[in-house]
Amino acid sequence: xxxxxxxxxxxxxxxxxxxxxxxxxxxxxxxxxxxxxxxxxxxxxxxxxxxxxxxxxxxxxxxxxxxxxxxxxxxxxxxxxxxxxxxxxxxxxxxxxxxxxxxxxxxxxxxxxxxxxxxxxxxxxxxxxxxxxxxxxxxxxxxxxxxxxxxxxxxxxxxxxxxxxxxxxxxxxxxxxxxxxxxxxxxxxxxxxxxxxxxxxxxxxxxxxxxxxxxxxxxxxxxxxxxxxxxxxxxxxxxxxxxxxxxxxxxxxxxxxxxxxxxxxxxxxxxxxxxxxxxxxxxxxxxxxxxxxxxxxxxxxxxxxxxxxxxxxxxxxxxxxxxxxxxxxxxxxxxxxxxxxxxxxxxxxxxxxxxxxxxxx
Amino acid sequence: xxxxxxxxxxxxxxxxxxxxxxxxxxxxxxxxxxxxxxxxxxxxxxxxxxxxxxxxxxxxxxxxxxxxxxxxxxxxxxxxxxxxxxxxxxxxxxxxxxxxxxxxxxxxxxxxxxxxxxxxxxxxxxxxxxxxxxxxxxxxxxxxxxxxxxxxxxxxxxxxxxxxxxxxxxxxxxxxxxxxxxxxxxxxxxxxxxxxxxxxxxxxxxxxxxxxxxxxxxxxxxxxxxxxxxxxxxxxxxxxxxxxxxxxxxxxxxxxxxxxxxxxxxxxxxxxxxxxxxxxxxxxxxxxxxxxxxxxxxxxxxxxxxxxxxxxxxxxxxxxxxxxxxxxxxxxxxxxxxxxxxxxxxxxxxxxxxxxxxxxxxxxxxxxxxxxxxxxxxxxxxxxxxxxxxxxxxxxxxxxxxxxxxxxxxxxxxxxx
Lengths: 361, 417
Known about the structure:
heterodimer; A: 361 residues; alpha+beta; Rossmann fold; CATH 2.40.50.140; 2 domains; six-stranded mixed sheet; five-stranded mixed beta barrel; 8 helices; 20 strands; elongated; B: 417 residues; mainly alpha; MetI-like fold; 3 domains; two-stranded antiparallel ribbon; 2 strands; 1% strand; flat
C-alpha cells in the first residue's frame, strides 16, 4: 500500500473571524498518510484555527481543505470521521470510561460484541483495561488524557487531531505521555495532526513540524532540519536557543558571505540574502560555537566571559562577543578543564556553514 | 497479626480521634453560633407557625369547653334515641351560661357547621329559655322548636365532644363523617375542593412544562453567547424580578382582556373577527400565561448556572466522534443539564402549586387554585382551622412531591446555582 502524499491538503486557505483580520493567511499544507505533523507556534498564530477548520468546527473563509482528495468544507464534523483529542480531554462526565469509548461506536450502530471487543482493545492500548467502569472524574489527569486518546482512536479514524492535549499535565507526566502517544502513532500508523506551543514536545514527537506565526506557515520540515537549518529568523528564534548578530552583507560569493557588524566582520552562510548591502541577522546555535577549537574554523573571535550558570549536565556561559553581550555558549560538563572563569577572555570559533545569514529582524 | 486495629495516638499520647475532636470543637461552636440567628429566625417564622397551624387544624376544644356538663351527661347516651332528661338539663345549664356571657354565637356557628339549620334553633332557644321553669327541661326545650325532637341534632352535638378532630381534613377532600360516624363523600354537586386540588396540580404541572420549554433555549443562549450579549439578555430575564408582582399581573390584565392589546393584535392580523374576540382572562388561559411569565426566571437561573459549567468542547467532542448534532445534544448535553432541569422544575412547581395573587387577579372562577380557597377561608368565612388544614395538606403534598422527586431524580443531583 503506497502512502498518499497529500492525504490532508490545505489549499490556499484563509480564515477571518471579524472580516478585518486574517487569522490564517494563504495556508498551503500537505500532510502525508500516516504522518505525525505538529503545528507549532506562539498563541494567536492560527494553529488551533487550522485544526478546527480541519475538524469542521470552523469553515475556511476562502480556499478548500481536502481529505483524501475530497473537498470537505461542506461536510459537517460528524461525517468527516476525524478523531479529536481536546485540550481538556472533553470526556463525557456522566458516562463511564467504557461508555465514553463506546460512544463513537454506538452512534455508528456497531454490534454490541464488536463494541466490546474494540473498546477492550483500545483500553489495553493505553493500558487502562481495569478502568472501564470508572467515571472520568475518578481518574487522574494522565489517565483521563489516555482515555481521551483511546476514544479518538477507537473508531479507526483516518486522521486524529490533537489540540494541545498535554497542556494540563505536569512535566514528568507530559514527557511520558509524549512517548506513549508517539508509540501509539507508530504502532497503528494513523495520520496525526498535533497542535502545541511547546517546541520540546513538537521536536520529540513529530515527523514534520509546521511552524506557525502570524497566520502563516513559516517552515514545514522535519525536527532536525527545523533546528539545524531554520529558513528565517523567526524559526531560528522560536526553536531552540540562538545567538544572533545583526549586520550588513559586505561580500557574497559561492555559498558564503561576509557580514559587517558594528564591531568586526564574520563569515556566514547566505540563506535568505542575495546581494551586497542587504541587512541580515546571522544566527548561530550555541552548541555550534566552540571554545579554543582544535580544528580549523573560519570564524575565530575573542570574547569576554560575563556570566557562568551551572545547569547540571552542562554549563551556560554568557559572553560579550563582537559587541553582542548576550552570546550564549553551552559547555558540556564532561569537557576538559577549560578556563571558564568570570572575566576571562577566551577564543571562540565556529564554521561559517553554521552561521546562517537570515532575514533581518 | 492482631485482628484489633491499633489506636493511633497523637504525640502527647491522647488517641488521635479525641484530640481531633478537641481541636475542632471550637470551630464547631463558632459555626453553630454563626447559624444561630438563622435558626432562630426559622423557628420563629416557620416551625412555630406550622406547629400552630397544625394544632389549630385539629383543635376542637372550643365546643367541648363550652358544653362541659352536656358532654359529661352524654357519656352514657348511646345516640340511638332522644337523650334522657339529664342531658337536656345539662345542655340547658351550659347554654344558659353561654347566653349570659354573650358567647353563645360561637357555639351556634360551630354547631351550624355540623348540622345546617342549627343556628336558628339555638337562637330561638336563647330567647325562650329565660322563661323556663325548673325541672322537666326535656319537655320545655322540645316545645321551643320541633327540631329538638329530632335525634340528629343531638347527635350533631355529640359528634363535637372530642377535643380533637380530623373533620377539617376530610372536608378538604370533600368527605365527612356522617351521623353513623362513617366517612363518606359529600354530594356530587358540592365537591369543589377536589376540583380545586386537581386544577392546582394541573396548573402547576403545565406552568412548569411551559416554563421548561421556554427557559431551556433561553438558558442555553445565555450560557453560550459572548459576555456582552449575555449580560443584556440576563437583564431581560431578571427584569421581571425588579418589577412588583402586582404590576406584572396587572399588566397582563391590560394585555389579555377582551379589548386588550393582544386581542387587538389578533383582530388586526385577521386571526379572529372583531365580534368574536377570544376570552383570555378570568379563566385558565390567563392563569397559565401570567404564571408562566412570572415564574420563568426561576427556571432560567438554575438551568443557566448548570449550562454555564458545561464545556462547549463536549458537544464538539460528541460531533467529532460521529454523533449528529441531535444525537450529541440528547446523549451528551441534555443529560448534563438534568441537575438544572431538576432544580428549575422543582422550584417552579412548588412555587406554582401555592401561587395566590396571580390566579386571584386573572384566574376568574375557572382559574382559582387551592391557595385562593385557603385565602377565602382565612378572610371571608373566618374558618381558620379549615384554612390551616388545607394549608397543611398543601404542605404535605409538596413534601410528598419532593420525596417522589428525590426518588426519581435524586436531590443530590439538583443544582440550584
